[in-house]
Prior knowledge:
2 copies of one chain form a homodimer.
Chain A: H1 18-35, H2 45-52, H3 56-62, H4 66-78, H5 89-99, H6 108-121, H7 123-150, H8 159-176, H9 187-197
Helix pairs in contact in A: 1-2, 1-4, 4-7, 5-7, 5-9, 6-7, 7-8, 8-9
Amino acid sequence: MSDTNPTADAPRSPGRPRSIRADEAIIEAVLDLLAEGSTIEALSIEAIATRAGVGKATIYRRWPGKDALLLDALRRLKGVVAQPAGHSVRDDLVLLVGAVGHNIDPRAERIMPCLVPEVNRSPDHFQLYQNIIEPRRKIMREVLRRGVATGELRADLDIEVAMALLTGPMLVQRLMRWHPELDDRLLPERVVDGVLDGLRAR
Amino acid sequence: MSDTNPTADAPRSPGRPRSIRADEAIIEAVLDLLAEGSTIEALSIEAIATRAGVGKATIYRRWPGKDALLLDALRRLKGVVAQPAGHSVRDDLVLLVGAVGHNIDPRAERIMPCLVPEVNRSPDHFQLYQNIIEPRRKIMREVLRRGVATGELRADLDIEVAMALLTGPMLVQRLMRWHPELDDRLLPERVVDGVLDGLRAR
């Protein structure tokens, strides 16, 4: 892969090395095509190459195939994973719930919901989608386990159900604008406090 | 609207009156076109008429316009609204949470997620979507208010947040198959008990 080494690109143009510009143009092309309504199935290396203004070989030198490229492109939508401070379980959960469904790229709003039915029809694509969300899920699972260990959370906590209780409300609100009366900015604290304390009168 | 009266249809064919068959063919045409990937915007009365094998006038005799027809078609996906028994707040919530994201028509799985970004771009369509879900939301709100009144639920309950806590986990699981390790059939009880009791150690 000599062209991942910028010194191999001649003549050098100013700004970023050509190989990095090509990477970004390819990722951008994938996201643009998906945001314009292309299904994963219809997305071809050829269409991506044309859109990015590169040759197909340039794509295959960087990614082994469409799925690996898609994984990188979809991860780009979501930005870096939030890292909890590790002091208070409640505060860590507020941070993590605040990051649920948060995308750094506005194209995500068009891409993500429509991906759902397609992902559910293909085991390979479902795995791809799980690969994107599992690193985030793992961090929340660790915070909940810590809470059980320190005695802040119930000893009999079902961790997977607890993650659904914390994540679901934020995800439907962010992704689907499910409930017009809820304020997205205040919701992470309200969800975490509501789920921690419970609705039942004591 | 003489053709809504079956006696006006001559000759009578066996089975359902022709006017009811036309209604159903029109609704079916809308759902088929949406399930095949048509956006609400691209959906035209002309395309619906062609697909249903009726004239455009037949559609306009029954519905004042596309939005009213869409509302009927999307309601059809969801079936009748669950009616809680009114004895135990917990049992009523299990019933209502079990109905969240439940569609009687398999086309819903393709139609509903992709509708989300489109609905969010158009205030009219957002209102249409709210008109579909508001009757269901109203029933849950009433159960929660009853729980506050009877003292089963906290007196300071934020009803709208509580609805998000109960509905969100089930909706992401049903609509997005968000979490492969959760069993959809057991989830309504687990969600309700988890949210009522809270995660915090006592």
